[in-house]
Amino acid sequence: MLQDRAFDRVGGSEEVRMDVRMVAATHVNLQQAVADGRFRDDLFYRLNGIEIRLPPLRERREDAPRTLWSASPANWAATGIRSANRRYRVLMD
User: Fold this and answer.
1) I need a labelling partner for 55 at 20 to 30 A (CA). Which of 16, 25, 26, 45 fits?
2) In this predicted model, what pLDDT tens digit does every residue of 19-73 receive, in sequence order?
3) Looking at the structure, do residues 42 and 63 belong to the same domain, yes or no?
4) 3-state secondary structure the chain
5) What total of structural domains would you count in the chain?
6) pLDDT score of 22
7) Which pTM value belongs to this model?
8) Listed residue (47, 55, 40) closest to 23, CA to CA
């Protein structure tokens, strides 16, 4: 799909063409994971178009309040953390 820009639907009879862009994120060093045999090199090759390194939020304290308020309430509900002050402390630790 990523290479050919086409796929076949399950049960379908026609190839579906597409033009998509993919964004992927990880905290893992994928180059090292490929070298260690823990990540497929062909997939890394296809995903590695533009690399954007972003420091963790704990190193970008000025972004924390904005991130805190834009975080999905459903995600926070799943953690059981309801207090905005506790959310801030969790993000900053």
Assistant:
1) 45
2) 877 788 888 899 999 999 999 999 898 888 888 888 888 888 888 777 766 666 6
3) no
4) CCCCCEEECCCCCCEEECCCCCCCCCCCCHHHHHHCCCCCHHHHHHHCCCCCCCCCHHHCHHHHHHHHHHCCHHHHHHHCCCCHHHHHHHHHC
5) 2
6) 79
7) 0.51
8) 47
